[in-house]
Amino acid sequence: MSRNHAFDQRNLDWYIDKAVQALVFIGGISAVIFIIGIFLFITKEGIGFLINTLDLQEFFGSPYWEPSDEDAPEYGILALLAGTASVTGLAMLIAIPFSLGTAIYIAEFATGKTREWLKILVELLAAIPSVVWGFIGLTIMNPLIIELFDVPVGLTVLNAGIILGLMAAPIMTSIAEDALKAVPDRYREAAEALGATRWQVVFKTVLPAAKNGLLGAVLLGVGRGFGETMAVLMATGHAVNIPGSVFDSVRALTATIAAELGETAVGSDHYQVLFTIGIFLFLITFLINLTADLIVRGIRNS
Amino acid sequence: MDNHMFAATELNQKNQRTEKLVRLLFILMAGLLILPVLIILFTLVYKGSSILSIDFLFTNPTNGMTEGGIFPALLGTIWLVVVALIVSVPLGIAAAIYLSEYAPDNWGTRLINLAIINLAGVPSIVHALFGLGAFVVFFNFGTSILAASLTLAIMTLPVVIVATRESLQAVPHAFREACWNMGATRWQTIRRVVLPNAVSGILTGVILEVSRSAGETAPIMFTGAVFFSPFLPQGVMDQTMAMSLHLFVVSTQVPNVPENLPYGVALVLIGMVLIMNSISIAFRMHLRGKKKW
Fold this sequence. Notes:
The complex is a heterodimer.
Chain A: H1 12-52, H2 56-61, E1 65-66, E2 74-75, H3 78-109, H4 112-127, H5 130-149, H6 157-181, H7 185-193, H8 198-209, H9 211-227, H10 230-235, H11 253-260, H12 269-301
Antiparallel strand pairs in A: 1-2
Chain B: H1 10-48, H2 54-58, E1 61-62, E2 67-68, H3 71-102, H4 107-121, H5 124-138, H6 145-169, H7 173-181, H8 186-215, H9 218-221, H10 243-253, H11 260-290
Antiparallel strand pairs in B: 1-2
Helix pairs in contact in B: 1-11, 3-6, 3-8, 3-10, 4-6, 5-6, 6-8, 7-8, 8-11, 10-11
């Protein structure tokens, strides 16, 4: 049977369409290729050390970090972990109430121009580069903390925590605002019809309905704080130390890589252990982002 | 006769008081979040503006970076950003077109979305490790603009993808259907109808990416940016100075820097970034006002 040419769509345009589809598909999967590539390459540089030399118990359990000691190098990240955790923890204590408060104000209370301007300012707050935040910690916050609390050093958990809180707040605000906006208006109308005041509507109806999205926002903020590098490098004081109070200097995992990678020879033990920290950071942030995504997607589907 | 029916009861009054209090609390919180930005901007302008001049922007640093201008860093940042854009804009737009126009709703697409979220969420220093391991060492580009820009491009790819996807999805589906009904292929529809209607939205995403990559420090530290270079970069295989790293260097690594110098560098950097962002925001609002559907 001969083919019916009138219905054969395979002309030049058809082939162009298929070619473009293949091309944009490559663009689409490039993100997947890159994320796998990142994992493979940092693993490739760090895996030898991880398997052959590293004692995991020492790695996570020892507070001594002296990787450049020629005779007896120590590879304990406990103090660095404590540094990262204390700064991120304080940052969240600051950022969670302020970003959720701002998100609630923008989504539920503010109207018209006020709302537009608030959103713009939050967006600009998010745009400030992390090295500028670090500079602010160094030059503005440092003397301010020394003066206010009468302490000898101002580059501390407190300094970096405040800076990091301000850095994490904008992204948390905008994601929390999205979560609040995703609550259907009929919930609010129903509550108002029952005689609830504005804040009763917000607290009893909107917040419970949006709680997953808000949790996602907080998680993303934690991820952001965990991975922040330059600001933490400049504002913590960079001293390997398990902090006893917010006025102690600490050092973060990310900052350690940033400060030491330049001094190491490619392939050396020190170089490899920094990549091992990188693998750890990658896995932790991957988990945080995955969880946040699952939680946020969960509410969208239900 | 009093009309008790419409007078505020004690409960009403209590509720109204709480309402006012809560509102005030939220305004206060929003204000406290915004206030630091204004204070910071004011301080930077106050302490940094005395050093700003045309000379500061267009001369080399001298005397161990304690005097002179920032020209090599400024030029270096432009190099890094432009090369990064050449890579990430086409790739990002292709990815967004795929996700918005072609991608089926299956696990593969979910995987791509997850990868994009993670690409944006991976710490910048991990991107730096990747750039060093992959581009500098494995592909043997050395510490060069090429290696640093590729690292920046991958790190900022999600910015372009997300902005482009949003503006593509904002084009009403009816536009596409009308075009398909005329016998156009998918690609003809995208090129003639969808992209022209989304191009300004894509542009705001690109501007945002420029601002992001201009401010990043960690990813370029070990891949192509150097503390000091006596030469201006001549091509993509050269090392370069950069604004963000220069701010780090003059504020932490160089002794005896006069106070206003790092403030000046910070002011120029933040000025570049905020102007870019403001343009992007203004552009977006202008578009929203103009939209016909």
